[in-house]
From TrEMBL:
UniProt-listed InterPro entries: Gal80p-like_C, Gfo/Idh/MocA-like_OxRdtase_N, Gfo/Idh/MocA_oxidoreduct, NAD(P)-bd_dom_sf
Protein name in UniProt: NAD-binding Rossmann fold oxidoreductase
Residue span, Gal80p-like C-terminal domain: 154-295
Location of the Gfo/Idh/MocA-like oxidoreductase N-terminal domain: 10-140
Organism name: Lentinula aciculospora
SUPFAM superfamilies: Glyceraldehyde-3-phosphate dehydrogenase-like, C-terminal domain, NAD(P)-binding Rossmann-fold domains
Pfam families in UniProt: Gal80p_C-like, GFO_IDH_MocA
GO MF annotation list: nucleotide binding
C-alpha cells in the first residue's frame, strides 16, 4: 500500500499565467471540491513581475470565492530559485517550454520540493536522466503531465484489457494523423519545435504522449524497428493572426514516424504518426484471442487537429461502450488526484519518463541504423 502524501499539498506553480494551457487545464481542477482539500496553491512564478502579480491576484480570488475565506497567493518572478526557496511549499509544478525544463526543474529538485513537470521533461534522454537521478538522490516524488492516460476512453480501455475479456493480446495497431504543426506552416512562437535538437518534434511530443498511453494499457515494448522521415525541409512561419509571413525557416524534424515490433507480452504492434494530414485521425485497434477493442474518433476529422483533441468512441466486439463525457480539466484533475492519493500505479513519474525517452531514442537509432533494437 503506497503511503499517501500529507494533505493538503502546498503547491507552487512556475509558468502559471492568467492565460494559456496551465491556466485553462492544469490549475482549474485544483479549485474544485474533489481537489481543493488535497492541494493548496500558495505561490506562482512567471518571467515578469507584472504577469506574476496578475496571476497571483487571479489565483487568490478563485480559492477565496470557493472557500469563503481570504486566500493570498504569493507572486514570484524571474529565476526559479526564488519560488523554490519558499519554505511554505511541498511541491512545485513546472509548466514552461521544454527548452527551460532542465534548468527550472533542477532548481525545484535542489530545493527538495516534490515536482510536477510537463512532458517531455527535458530535451532528449540526457536531460531527463539527469532530472531523474537528481530527484532520486534528493528522495523527492515526481508527477508527469501525461493526461492522456486519464481520458475516459483510456480508463475504459485499460479496464477492458486488464479484465481479460479480450483474452491474450495478439496485436495492436495505432494510427495518429495531425492536421497542424510540423508541416509547411507553423506559428512563430513554436519555431523551436522545428529543430530536432530542441526535443519538441512530432516524435517527442505527441509521440511521447501516445506511447505513454499505449504502454500504460498494453505493457512495455521488448523490441522495435522504425522508419522516421522528414518530407518537409522548410516551414513558413505564421503571425499571431495565423497569416503566413515572409520568414521561411529550416525544418529538420520528422513528419512521418512508423514503428513496429513486439511487446513484452508477446503481442505484435504497429504505431504510425504523421503530420500534416488533410484529415485528423485517431484509430487504435487492440486484437485479442477472444475479442477486439476499437478506439476510434468517428467525428468530423476536418474540424480537429489530431491526438490532443481526439474524442474517440470505444467499441468492444462491434458494440459501442458507454463512457462519460470528458475534457482536459477532468483529465488533469484525475492526474493530480492520483498523486495526492498515492496511487503510484496510475500516474507517471520521472522514472517512467526516462524509460519512455529510451523508447524514443531506440526509434531514432533503429531508423538511422536500419535494424531492430531490443529494449529488454
Amino acid at each position: 500500500m503506497a503511503q499517501e502524501p500529507k494533505l493538503p499539498i502546498r503547491l507552487g506553480f512556475i509558468g502559471l499565467s492568467a492565460t494559456g494551457w496551465a491556466a485553462t487545464a492544469l490549475a482549474p481542477p485544483l479549485f474544485e471540491d474533489s481537489l481543493s482539500s488535497k492541494y493548496s496553491l500558495v505561490a506562482v512564478s512567471t518571467s515578469k513581475q507584472e504577469s506574476a502579480e496578475t496571476s497571483a491576484a487571479k489565483y487568490s480570488e478563485l480559492p477565496s470565492k470557493a472557500t469563503g475565506t481570504s486566500v493570498v497567493v504569493k507572486p514570484y518572478h524571474g529565476s526559479a530559485k526564488h519560488i523554490a526557496s519558499e519554505r511554505d511549499l511541498d511541491m512545485i509544478a513546472v509548466s514552461v517550454k521544454v527548452l527551460d525544463h532542465k534548468e527550472v526543474a533542477s532548481e525545484v529538485i535542489e530545493a527538495g520540493k516534490d515536482l510536477f513537470i510537463e512532458w517531455p521533461a527535458g530535451r532528449h534522454v540526457k536531460e531527463t536522466k539527469e532530472l531523474y537521478e537528481a530527484a532520486k538522490l534528493k528522495g523527492i516524488k515526481s508527477l508527469l503531465g501525461f493526461q492522456s492516460r486519464f481520458t475516459t476512453y483510456a480508463l475504459k480501455a485499460k479496464e477492458i484489457v486488464d479484465s481479460g475479456d479480450l483474452g491474450e493480446i495478439l496485436s495492436s495497431t495505432f494510427i495518429i494523423s495531425i492536421t497542424s504543426f510540423w508541416g509547411h506552416f507553423m506559428p512563430s512562437n513554436y519555431r523551436y519545435t522545428l529543430s530536432s535538437s530542441n526535443g519538441a518534434t512530432l516524435l517527442d511530443i505527441p509521440g511521447g504522449h501516445a506511447l505513454d498511453l499505449f504502454t500504460h494499457i498494453l505493457g512495455p515494448i521488448s523490441s522495435l524497428s522504425a522508419v522516421i522521415k522528414n518530407q518537409i525541409s522548410s516551414t513558413t512561419l505564421l503571425d499571431s493572426d495565423g497569416n503566413p509571413t515572409e520568414e521561411v525557416v529550416p525544418n529538420d524534424t520528422p513528419n512521418q514516424v512508423c514503428v513496429m515490433g513486439s511487446l513484452a507480452s508477446g503481442a505484435l504492434f504497429t504505431v504510425h504518426l504523421q503530420a500534416p494530414a488533410k484529415e485528423a485521425d485517431f484509430n487504435w485497434i487492440i486484437q485479442g484471442e477472444k475479442g477486439v477493442l476499437r478506439i476510434v474518433d468517428d467525428s468530423d476529422r476536418t474540424t480537429k487537429q489530431g491526438f490532443f483533441d481526439a474524442t474517440p468512441n470505444v467499441y468492444l466486439n462491434g458494440e459501442k461502450v458507454a463512457i462519460p463525457t470528458d475534457d482536459a480539466t477532468k483529465q488533469t484533475g484525475r492526474n493530480w488526484e492520483a498523486f495526492a492519493d498515492g496511487n503510484v500505479s496510475k500516474y507517471a513519474d520521472l522514472e517512467q519518463a526516462l524509460k519512455l525517452k529510451e523508447i524514443l531514442q531506440a526509434i531514432v537509432r533503429s531508423s538511422e541504423d536500419g535494424r531492430r533494437v531490443d529494449l529488454q
